[in-house]
Fold this sequence. Notes:
Elements: H1 3-8, H2 44-50, E1 54-59, H3 67-76, E2 79-82, H4 88-91, H5 101-112, E3 116-124, H6 130-133, H7 138-156, E4 162-167, H8 182-187, H9 191-202, E5 207-212, H10 221-236, E6 242-245, E7 248-249, H11 258-267, E8 271-279, H12 284-295, E9 300-305, H13 331-339, H14 351-354, E10 362-364, E11 381-390, E12 393-402, E13 405-413, E14 425-426, E15 438-445, E16 450-456, E17 460-465, E18 478-479, H15 486-491, E19 498-504, E20 508-514, E21 519-526, E22 535-542, E23 550-557, E24 563-570, E25 576-583, E26 591-592, E27 607-608, E28 619-623, E29 633-634, E30 640-645, E31 660-666
Parallel strand pairs: 1-2, 1-9, 2-3, 3-4, 4-5, 5-6, 6-8, 7-8, 8-9, 10-27, 23-29
Antiparallel strand pairs: 10-31, 11-12, 12-13, 13-14, 15-16, 16-17, 17-18, 19-20, 20-21, 21-22, 23-24, 24-25, 25-26, 28-30, 30-31
Amino acid sequence: MNPLKRLGCRRASVLGLLAATVLATPGTATGASDAPETVRASTLGAQAAQSGRYFGTAVAAGRLGDGTYTGILDREFNSVTPENEMKWDTIEPSRGSFNFGPGDQIVNRATSHGQRMRGHTLVWHSQLPGWVSSIRDAGTLRGVMNNHITTVMNHHKGRIHSWDVVNEAFADGSSGQLRSSVFRDVLGDGFLEQAFRTARTADPAAKLCYNDYNIEDWNAAKTQGDYRMVRDFKARGVPIDCVGLQAHFGAGGPPGSFQTTLSSFAALGVDVQITELDIAQASPTAYANTVRACMNVARCTGITVWGIRDSDSWRSSENPLLFDRNGNKKSAYNSVLTTLGGTPATTRSTPAARALPGSYSWSSSGQLIAPKSDPTHNIAGIKDPTVVYYNGKYHVFASTASSSGYNLVYLNFGDWSQAGSATHHYLDRTAIGTGYRAAPQVFYNAPQRLWYLVYQTGNASYSTNPDISNPNGWSAPRNFYSSMPEIIRQNIGNGYWVDMWVICDSANCYLFSSDDNGHLYRSQTTVGQFPNGFTNTVIALQDSKNALFEASNVYKVQGSNQYLLLVEAIGSDGRRYFRSWTAAGLAGSWTQLAASESNPFARANNVSFPAGAWTRDISHGEMIRAGYDQTLTIPACRLQYLYQGLNPGAGGDYNLLPWRLGLLTQTNSTC
Length: 671
Ligand code: 9MR
C-alpha cells in the first residue's frame, strides 16, 4: 500500500474521520512491574519486600513504651534507624567513655522483631560533643575519629546492616565543596576517605553509606559535589557501598530530577536509599512521586521515613509523616502503599476489590502539547502519543500530521507543566527517515537492554535505541512481518492496517493491530525471539467497524493477574471514545469492562473539563504506565491517560486537522 496515497484519501470533515485513519499506540510511565504471581501486601514493609526493598522508620528510644507507636512500628516497618541514639554526643559524650544503652535498646528490639538496622551516624559535624570539636591537632583528631568508628562498629558488629559512615559533609549553596567542620578543617578533605577505610576494616560485612540532605535535585551544586566524591571513591577503590538521600521535602515533594539523581548515583556502582523521608503537609502525590522514583531505580534498595506519627516528627508542625497524631493512616500512607505495589487494607478484602472498577470518570487538562513548526516542518496536528516516565522525565513520542504526510516527533520534560515548552525533535531527521511513519509505541525491552519504538509504515515497523533521550540514537526502520498476514488480508475490507502494539508477559511477546474494519489482530513470538518470529496471527476481538475501530492499548494491571484492553471507537455522535475489556492473559478472551457509549472507558460524557471543554473527541493515546518495560504495567489506581483531542469546530482537510494532546486523570479511583 502506498501510505501517502492512502492518506490522500482521508480528506474529510472531522465527522468524516470515520472512514480512514492512522493513529496508534500508547505506552507510558514509571516503576517496576510486579510479577503476576505476586500477592499484594497490606503493610509498607511487606509490600516493599516484594520488590526486594525495605521500608523503614526512624525510631526514638524514648517512645518505645508507647503501645500505639510500637504497634505501628512492628506492623508496618522492617527497617529501623535510631533517630538520635547513635550520634556522637550520645554514644561517646567524653573521650573513650561509651554509652551504648539507648542505641542497644533500639537494636535489641529491632533484632528480636526481625527488623534490620541502619546505623546513624559515625562522623557528623552536628550533635558532636565539645571535646571533639575543640581538637586542633590532626594526629589527635584522626586517632579519635578512627577509635570512635572502630569501637562503635565493633560493638554492633553483625547487627547493623548499613552504616551512615559520614553524614552531611558537603556545604549548602553553590560551592559543591565540603562544609567547614572540625574534621575538614583539621584533617582536610581526606577525612572522608579515612573514615570509610577505617569503617571497612572495622566491620567488613556492613554496607558503608554516605548520607546527606538537599542532594535530591540533580542540578544542585551540592548534589554534584557529592556525586564527584562518590565517583572519585569508586575510581580509586575507596570503600563505599551506598548513598543515602535524606529527602526532607517541602510541600511539593521531590524535584523533577529526583529519579535522575537516584539512577545517576546508582550508575556509579553504589546502592541508593531514601533515608529520612518527610514531606511538609504529606501530600499523597508528593509521597507517591518520591516512592515511584525509588521503585524505578533497581539499585534504590529501601526507603526510611523520619518518624512514625506527625507528633513524633522533628518538624511536627508541618504534619509531614504517614500517620496522624493518633496513629491513624493518612492518605499519604495509602498512596505510598499503592505506589509500592500494595493494596490499602480497607479495599483489600476480596480479589475483586483489587481489580479495575467497572466505570470511570475523569478530569481533563487543557491542551498540554501543540505542534511546533520549524522552517522545514509545517505541522498541523500532533497525534497518537506514546509516553514513558523514565529517569525523572516523561518521554513522549507522537505522530506529526501535515500536508506532506505523517512522521514522528519526540519531546521530553520533567513535569506536565513543562510539556508545552519542551523542544520538539523531528525524527525524520534521524535514521528513522522521511516518509510514512505514524502511531508510535515506546517501551524498554529489559532482556535486551534496548528501547523499542514500534510504529506503522504500511507494515508494522520498529527502531531501537540504547538511550531513549537521544533522538539521534534510533536505528533505521525494520519490519516485524515480511508482508501483511493472510488473516488480515482476508478481513481488512476497505480498512487500513494500523496501530501496532507490542506487550510481553514473562514468556511471550504479542503484537496487536487494528484494521479500521472491526478487527483486533494478535500475533505472537517468544520473549527470547523478539523482535523476530511473530506468527500465529488471529482475530483477538471483533465488532462492527465503528465499535472496534483502532488505536488499541493493552496493559498489565499492577499487582493483579488482569490485563486491560482499550480500543478506540467512533460514537453515534461521530466523536471518538474508548471502550475497555479485561482478560486474565494476553492470549485470553476479552470480557467487557466499561465498553458502551453510556458507560465508556473515556468519552466526552465521563470527562470533566475544569478549564473548558476544548475537545469532544477522546482519541488515540496512551496510559501513564507504572513502569517502562515490555510488560507495559499500569497502576490499578488513579489512572492517567494522555490523549489527542480536537477543537470541536475544526473541519476541512483531514491531514490538517489541529489535533492537540491533553491528559486525563481518573477521578473515581477507590484506592
Ligand atoms: O530528628 C532528629 C532530631 O530529633 C534531632 O534533634 C536533630 C538534631 O540535629 O537531628 C534530627 O535528625 C537529623 C538526622 O540525624 C540527620 N539529618 C537531618 C535530620 C533532621 O534534622
